[in-house]
Specification:
- There is one protein chain.
- The protein is of the alpha/beta class.
- The chain folds into two domains: 6-119, Nuclear Transport Factor 2, Chain: A; 135-288 and 321-436, Rossmann fold (3-Layer(aba) Sandwich), CATH 3.40.50.1820.
- It has helices at residues 20-35, 39-42, 48-53, 56-70, 188-197, 209-212, 214-219, 226-242, 259-270, 287-300, 307-322, 341-348, 352-358, 376-385, 424-436, and strands at residues 6-10, 73-84, 87-96, 100-107, 113-119, 138-145, 152-159, 165-171, 182-183, 186-187, 202-206, 247-257, 276-280, 335-336, 339-340, 363-368, 392-397.
- The protein has an eight-stranded mixed sheet, with helices on both faces. A five-stranded antiparallel sheet has the order 1-5-4-3-2. A two-stranded antiparallel ribbon has the order 9-10.
- Helix 9 (259-270) links the parallel strand 12 and strand 13 (276-280).
- The chain is globular and about 60 Å long.
- The two termini are 29 Å apart.
């Protein structure tokens, strides 16, 4: 599920930056203008793409929506400068009344703001591979998924030795994700890619479309569906592998995490030649029910939630309940968590359980017992729906959270801020299953 509280927009354009100190000044000035509700001043340094996606009035609406969730901005804290490919990013720790978020401001070569988001985590730390990774057992190459305006940069990890090798395509959860599915200091997809490649399985991971093409995606918000966000690129990734030397085109699997797992049966239905599907933390219930359960759970963690928090949760629940209405129209103007009703109805139309019943591909379904975003109730839903299918394997791990990282006690969002890795048993179970099929 989406771990960002608010994603305004992210667009990455070629750049060679001015001095970082001046960029930090501009980022802080924009935050100060937002705090004062001077949205024209806040958008002063926006580039053309940002001005189209977030003109001052829309910027104001989005900022006010954020403030309703986390309270007023109290102060700006430390700033961190980061280089992302050809772009300069200024992260600022922002202390709001109810939470600390990190503003992520992306600058182009002329010092214009070309991306802006607010996240519960700061910049990713240097990646330290888990013990199960054997770095000399595989090589990585840069490739491209898809063609034309929606082409995506990607990384293919291929085992050393003589192929052809079985291969896995990794499909992200909801929200804006890089190819590593970076969440705080955790890089779920790099763990999986390097872990599986160490065991003789090629792995393709790519930038998610709304991460790499953020500005263009923001402009098509009212027409965006799960097809453009997830399905098309996953299928393009499979097609790429089929035409890649050293890959066994008969043994290409799709692994989806969270929303990607929810979409996996539909991906399999769209391409029956896919050898099998791996669902990690995939909801078996409707998104309306899952979202309501999530926000109620998070609210329950606070012993004395504020009235603002209660009102914010009540608003989300009211909107989410509409997703359970079979008569809900895609023309409805309501937005839920920044997406149109058309988008959420396209997610509902995945009909993941019914679709899974109809497809012929074998499935491996994995679930963390401490996951509060997609719970054991979803796992039991899959188990019940697919009972009797000899080609389906289900396994749960009592101590793992949504990222398949080990933990103790009641799961909380704060644990995503701690560095961890997908546990070795999960990687081994996936590798064994892939090789058996």
């Amino acid at each position: 599920m989406n771990l960002s509280l608010v994603l305004l927009t992210t667009a990455l354009l070629p750049s060679v930056p001015p001095e970082a100190s001046k960029l930090e000044e501009r980022a802080r000035a924009m935050m100060t203008a937002l705090e004062k509700e001077d949205y024209k001043a806040a958008a002063k340094n926006f580039d053309d793409a940002m001005n189209k996606a977030l003109p001052p009035d829309k910027l104001g609406e989005t900022w006010k929506g954020l403030v309703k969730q986390v309270g007023a901005l109290k102060k700006q804290g430390a700033a961190t400068t980061e280089k992302v490919q050809k772009y300069d990013v200024i992260w600022i720790a922002c202390e709001f009344k109810e939470a600390t978020l990190y503003s992520r401001v992306v600058f182009d070569s002329e010092g214009r703001i070309t991306g802006l988001s607010f996240r519960p985590f700061g910049p990713a730390k240097e990646y330290k591979a888990p013990a199960y990774v054997k770095r000399d057992a595989f090589k990585e190459t840069e490739v491209q998924v898809g063609e034309g305006e929606w082409a995506l940069p990607a990384t293919l990890a291929v085992p050393t030795g003589v192929g052809p090798f079985p291969a896995v395509v990794l499909v992200h959860g909801s929200g804006s994700h890089d190819r590593d599915e970076t969440i705080g200091p955790n890089r779920t997809f790099r763990d999986l890619a390097w872990g599986l490649a160490s065991q003789g399985i090629a792995v393709l991971r790519y930038e998610k479309r709304n991460h790499h093409h953020g500005a263009k995606m923001a402009k098509m918000k009212d027409t965006l569906t799960i097809k453009e966000e997830v399905l098309d690129d996953a299928l393009a990734a499979v097609a790429l592998l089929r035409n890649t030397p050293g890959i066994d085109r008969r043994r290409i699997f799709v692994l989806g995490h969270s929303l990607g797992a929810m979409a996996a049966p539909r991906i399999g239905a769209r391409d029956p030649k896919i050898a099998g599907l791996i669902l990690m933390a995939g909801p078996s219930r409707g998104m309306g029910e899952v979202i309501i359960e999530q926000v109620e759970y998070i609210l329950s963690l606070d012993a004395s939630p504020s009235e603002e928090q209660k009102k914010g949760v009540a608003k989300v629940i009211k909107q989410a309940e509409k997703l359970n209405d079979p008569k809900m129209s895609p023309e409805a103007k309501d937005d839920l968590l920044g997406a149109s009703m058309l988008y959420w109805l396209s997610v509902r139309d995945l009909a993941q359980v019914e679709t899974a019943k109809k497809i012929n591909q074998p499935m491996l379904i994995l679930q963390g017992g401490r996951d509060y975003q997609v719970t054991m109730q979803d796992f039991e839903g899959w188990k019940k729906a697919l009972a009797g299918r000899k080609d389906t394997t289900l396994k749960s791990y009592p101590k793992l959270n949504h990222l398949f990282v080990v933990g103790e006690g009641k799961a909380k969002p704060a644990e995503y801020e701690k560095e961890g890795h997908v546990v070795a048993d999960v990687v081994a179970d996936i590798a064994i299953w892939v090789k058996e099929h």
